[in-house]
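Homework help board

Subject: predicted structure for assignment chain

Our instructor gave us this sequence and asked us to write out the predicted structure in token form, then describe one feature. I got the tokens but I'm not sure how to describe them. Can anyone check?
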Amino acid sequence: MRKALKKLKGDTGRVMRDLRRHLLDIPEGSLRHRIIAKLALVSHLLHQQPRGGDKIYALHEPKVDCISKGKASVRYEFGCKVSVRHDAGRGLRGRHAQLSGQPPRWPHPAGKPWNRWKS
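My token output:
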């Protein structure tokens, strides 16, 4: 597995360097800006530390987090934690929040999640 990952990183780095060399040939516009954004993302992916904090788990969805579960069958899940406000009698309200990282346990002195995160 380690040998395969090393080869994959080498091939990805080679393609990334080749794209950077030919970046001046691409005309200014939307395509060039998307390529530059993806190159920055891949560069971050190649240089991330195994035990670092700001990790990329999926190139197609870079804001995905690793959510650690206490289950024996599924130890880790990948996705985003979401907080949705529910009022008794009215049903779901229009307030929701995407939580990044490990949110604090509730009750917490900072208050409810919908008071801290954007709606």
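Reply (TA_rk): Your tokens look well-formed. For the description, you could write something like this. Residues 2-21 form the longest helix (20 residues). That's the kind of observation they're looking for.
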